[in-house]
Specification:
This protein is about 20% helix and about 30% strand. It is an alpha+beta fold and about 270 residues long. The chain folds into three domains: about 90 residues, no CATH class; about 80 residues, no CATH class; about 70 residues. Strands 1, 2, 3, 4, 5 and 6 form a six-stranded antiparallel beta sheet that branches. The longest helix is centred in the first third of the chain and has 19 residues. The protein starts with 9 loop residues before the first helix and ends in a 6-residue tail after the last helix.
Length: about 270
């Protein structure tokens, strides 16, 4: 599964910290962004971009029987299908997601009125299947931004060259049309090149006029990724005895960046214990 987790773009990194319009070092900048985003996820013990995945749960060990609750092992943004351990589908009107007011969800509770229980047939291990969109965002319903870009023509499930109505898209962004996630590897004006069906989603047909939505992880995470990537980039050619300063923060080695990432995530309350 192609997984893209970039929280900022090369264009934004260059404009904010590297004071250059040259593209000769774009590949290196992208490497630094990807390194920073991997370390952000590892330090936080969670993922900050969505991915579609079926996860398996133990029908005994993961269940709180008295409360009819299934405990989840990762951040959940949306349920696509939920299958009980006996192979029956559980419909959305038979359960509630916890917490009810914001994402991510951490448990699923069967309603008493549904008259069903978590169960299994032969073995409880991995009996319950939850196909969902996994990741972290405080308000998933607001996470996909409308940047005013629409397809100008129909595309099938294999087309990678897209023509859109607006030049808003940027290389390095995660986009969405309907249920399919796209990664924009290049974008210029009204043209974009996309990797199709990324992060576990399925490539599909889309009609002219379809709106392209872009993932918005939130300003704090974007700035964290941008500052960390800028620090890594500048440290590559920095003399050992010198330090660099990014927005008032001093870094002498890559370990300083990693330590700073952890401190920032802790301050923002984003570390999953």
């Amino acid at each position: 599964m192609a997984y893209y987790n970039e929280l900022t773009t090369v264009a934004d990194l260059r404009a904010a910290y590297l004071n250059s319009t040259k593209s000769t070092q774009d590949a290196l900048m992208l490497d630094m962004i990807r390194q920073a985003c991997r370390e952000i996820e590892e330090a936080a013990n969670r993922r900050f971009v969505p991915r579609v995945q079926t996860r398996h749960f133990d029908a005994v060990a993961n269940i709180e029987r008295e409360q009819r609750r299934l405990w989840l092992d990762e951040d959940l943004l949306a349920v696509l299908t939920l299958t009980n351990g006996d192979g029956t589908l559980i419909s959305s009107n038979q359960y509630v997601l916890e917490s009810p007011d914001e994402t991510p969800y951490w448990a699923i509770k069967l309603l008493a009125s549904a008259g069903i229980a978590w169960t299994y047939e032969d073995d409880p291990e991995n009996a319950i299947l939850l196909n969902g969109i996994w990741g972290y965002h405080r308000q998933y319903s607001e996470a996909w931004g409308d940047v005013g870009a629409q397809l100008t023509g129909d595309i099938n499930s294999t087309v990678t060259a897209l023509s859109v109505t607006s030049g808003i898209l940027k290389a390095g962004q995660l986009g969405k049309i309907s249920d399919e996630f796209f990664y924009f590897s290049a974008a210029s004006g009204v043209n974009a090149t996309a990797v199709r069906g990324v992060n576990g989603s399925t490539p599909a047909l889309h009609s002219a006029g379809s709106t392209i939505y872009v993932w918005d992880a939130g300003q704090h995470l974007e700035m964290l990724a941008r500052r960390a990537a800028a620090a890594y980039f500048k440290l590559r050619e920095n003399p050992i005895a010198d330090t660099i300063v990014i927005d008032g923060q001093t870094f002498a080695t890559p370990k300083d960046v990693l330590k700073w990432i952890g401190a920032q995530l802790d301050m923002l309350g984003l570390v999953r214990k």
